[in-house]
Amino acid sequence: MGFLVRICYFLFVSVAKAQLTVPPPTPSTTTTIQTVPISSDPLKTLKIGLLLPRYNVDVAEESGFDRAAGAIPIAIDAIRKNHILDGFNFTFITKFAECKDYLSAGYAVDLITVEKVDAVIGPTCSSSAIHSGIITAYYNIPTYLWGLVASHQLADTGRYPTTVRLTADSAELAEAFISFMDEFEFDRFAFIYMLIGQQKCKYIGDDLKEVIENTTLSDISMTYSHQLENSSVQMIRKTMEAAVKRARIFALCFPNDVDRRNFFLVIHDMGLHTDEYLYVMLDTRGFGFGQRAKSKDFMEASGTVPFYIDQSDKPDGRDQDAMAAARMAISIDFDATTSVGDIADFNKMVIDRVHGWPFYCTDCNSSAVAATYARYLHDAMYLYALSLNKTITKNPNNTRNGRAIARNSNVTFQGASGEVIFNKERQREAVFVVMGLNGTNSVVKFSTLKRDQTGNMTYYPEGREQRIWETRSGKQPRAVPLCGFDGNSCPEDPIRSPWVIAAVATGCVFAVITVFTSIYICWHKGGSESSRSFQSGTASVATKLTIETQLESEFFTLYYLSGEPVVASKHHIRLNLDKNDHADMRKLRSLDHSNLNKFLGLCLDAEDCMYMSIWKYCSRRSLQDVFLRESITMDSFVMCSLMRDILQGLNYIHNSFLEYHGHLTSSNCLVDDRWQVKLSDYGLEGLRKADRLPPKKLLWRAPELLRDESVFGTKAGDVYSFAIICSEIMSRKPAYDLDSRPETEEEIVYLVKRGGSTLCRPSISNMAEFNPAFIHLVRDCWSERVRERPTVDQVIKLMKTIIPNSNVNLMDHVFRMMESYADSLEQEVQARVRELESEKRKSDLLLYRMMPKQIAEKLKMGSSVEPETFESVTVFFSDVVSFTTLASLCTPLQVVDLLNRLYTNFDQIIDNHDVYKVETIGDGYLCVSGLPHRNGDRHVIEIADMSLEFIASLQGFRIPHIPSETVQIRVGMHTGSVVAGVVGLTMPRYCLFGDTVNTASRMESNSKPNRIHMSSEAYLAIQKFPGYTTESRGDVIIKGKGVMETFWLLGKESVAKRTVRSGFRRNMG
């Protein structure tokens, strides 16, 4: 059998050489660490084989060597700290199997037969683990799996007796999802997933189907399942168009967060993010509603950011859209909550530790973020140590007994991936959490899914059970719409029962009698002949809104017809309509032109006994409203386009059966949302003749029509009305601009009607933006002599010759205007942004001078700054010798100037060292090194070098007003631990606390002029660095400390030979 396995091994190696498409794996790395033995016996060495991907980009971010291997030394630290396997050394042999089945199997044989490893950790993908697990079972070598190994096949302990898995089982995830469905009585769903490089979603889907088929406790069906080839808009849209015909609950699985976010953007654009739909995201990574942060500088404490945030180099700016769609989603994911430190800190340590023992990786990417499953690798190593320790306690010779070690893996510990609990079947007991957004768009935990005492996956809500539907106004979605997926399965209305129908029919009879009686009373005769299509039907009528002023409310009202706003024009007349009237209205309804407002029909207001003609509603209302209320800037092109639209509408009417409008005013020239003018209130001559119009409505009427009221309208009269409207458009003021004229409306109507040599017309002088020929054309249109007025056709032709670019579309012109405005606005915004950035840099610079940059950044982001303990730092204190005497020789301003010059010099020196200036109090100067940035043991030499440079800089320092006096300082330094934190809300300060600060202060107060006084702790710390000259001062009585041995720091060769440029000679002149 061993011979056959060796043959298989060589075959695997041959295939690997022939088919490997990734870069050649780096040679296996073997490193050893010598641990301290518990006894005098030689330490035993444990060889651990690692099967990891490195060059496979599809899984590198999840479990790649560069991003995950650093978890191994962190786990070794924990093993040593807890005294597990104290009598053993560790050797690691790394093989880059790249999640390839043939490489994983071949390298597994290599590790066992050639390298003689005691255990294997990996591979990190389900398919590869299935193949290598059989080989390790044959050789009885323990195998610990982590990463993307979710397949339920690996739970078969008979087939894989030496395999232990740290990640959640996809079958348990499926059971958790089914439990969730049962909890809310959902009986069907659609499954949409994607496979790109990984097979995780495939195994989740397979196990989901298997659980549904084998369960007997619920009747849940997967009505639709589809694999997305990619996350393009077309692919997702096509899939969802088919899916919504089969389901309203959607289970989702995506291999990466970019594709997941793209999916939610598409459903947002499709309008599928209403409370009718529910999206359940299934995963085992432990991220829940988050995604792995791509920048280690901006990640949250959990190491994640919300999945709807765009982390690309060039964000698309659609985070709000993605979040709006995400409000309709929840996640069911493995509970990886841990209390072991900060996950973000752990991830940073993983990246840092890969460069040291045992891997010493020199080409690993230091700027990368830790792998998704790095915490599980840590726990795999730690679990192996626990299991082996438990095994050898019973039998010291079982270091390679995979079955025995695997059986002893039923332990419990708090790991980096959360609480790790293994049952007797060597399966990790999975706990899943349901998470989503609440009403304030914060990610919250809604419930927990875990096995109860009977072994069934059970739903445990947290807080109010209906809190999960908070973003849907507390409304639970339906698995099947009320009227079915096609809208044709609405439940039968109970009012359709025979008894109810009979009662309604009886009521209708009485209603009909009542209606006809009302009509008889109003018209003094029997009901008129009905017409099939001129009355508005039984549409719902909502709140009425007046369109213009209180006066005009007598003529127009806004209603809603079939959910659409319509305008009702009132006709205060009682009139019998005959068949000819009905025929004319049918023709009127058939008129259809882009510059005509659609006539919808005629209805009777029984309350007021009057007719109302119904017309479509235009959002911008009338030209009068545009002039009076719109704040848009109009140029001559826009105004001419409005006039051209009026002419096109008139031309259509003049060539129709109507022949003329008869009542053209700026109030019935309506403007839609595309700035297109539509003529309204045409036709219905029989009703309009009887309407009594106020003088304001007659300002557009031609003089010949004012004189002969028997004539309703003419084509020439429409041309006159058009000219009056042109004057309004050109002046952007109401007709005749009554506010600036002495005449009233009645007087103007009288003057127009009278005629004569001096005509009363609107003023259109001083219109420099218009071609003079066009102004003459308007005056021709309102000529007193009808024969001198041009026809509409002639006006259209003349306008084409007068106005250039008359064929350019108005919307195109408006868009160009908006683009030009946007360009100028963009330039202004860029200028403002540059100013803002400049001011921000100034404020940041000022802030960074007040406290450390790391602390300032946290405060700017609104994060709390927790007090932090620093085990080893060096604190520096100094003061000016005989400062009181010097101050007595100076004025207060000169004292301030003296200290400013002195400390400016010191500040320049500090910039050259890893030292943080804490504060200055009078002549006292306090600095520290080793915080907030930890620098190992270098803090003592940073302070020492700085102190020597301080004293050297004073050699050239002179006081301008007392040149004979010199400045000397006393220096004290001490090494120890401190606690640092931000204190206060108003003018917050970054302060130090601890006995180390007090001791450093005592060193300074007991020092001598231009001498550096060190504690014994600082002396011992500096001894690690050669080149510094010190001298013992002997025992000194220190206040509050007793007798202490202290030392003088005399100098350093490099400092003594260096010329210090303090800048003071230039400042002092």
From TrEMBL:
Protein's UniProt keywords contain Signal: yes
Catalytic activity of the protein: GTP = 3',5'-cyclic GMP + diphosphate
The keyword Nucleotide-binding is assigned to this record: yes
Biological processes per GO annotation: chemosensory behavior; chemotaxis; intracellular signal transduction; receptor guanylyl cyclase signaling pathway
Pfam families cross-referenced by the UniProt entry: ANF_receptor (PF01094), Guanylate_cyc (PF00211), HNOBA (PF07701), PK_Tyr_Ser-Thr (PF07714)
EC number: 4.6.1.2
Domain called Guanylate cyclase: residue spans: 874-1004
Record GO cellular component, one term: plasma membrane
Membrane topology recorded in Swiss-Prot or TrEMBL: Single-pass type I membrane protein
Chief location of this protein within or outside the cell: membrane
SMART domains reported for this sequence: CYCc (SM00044)
Domain Protein kinase per the UniProt entry, residue ranges: 495-802
GO MF annotation list: adenylate cyclase activity; ATP binding; guanylate cyclase activity; peptide receptor activity; protein kinase activity
InterPro entries noted in UniProt: A/G_cyclase, A/G_cyclase_CS, ANF_lig-bd_rcpt, Cyclic_nucleotide_synthase, HNOB_dom_associated, Kinase-like_dom_sf, Nucleotide_cyclase, Peripla_BP_I
Gene3D superfamilies in UniProt: 3.40.50.2300, 6.10.250.780, Nucleotide cyclase, Transferase(Phosphotransferase) domain 1
Keywords: Cell membrane, cGMP biosynthesis, Glycoprotein, Lyase, Membrane, Nucleotide-binding, Receptor, Signal, Transmembrane, Transmembrane helix
Signal peptide positions (record): 1-18
Places the protein is found: Cell membrane
Protein family (similarity comment): Belongs to the adenylyl cyclase class-4/guanylyl cyclase family.
Designated name of the protein: Guanylate cyclase
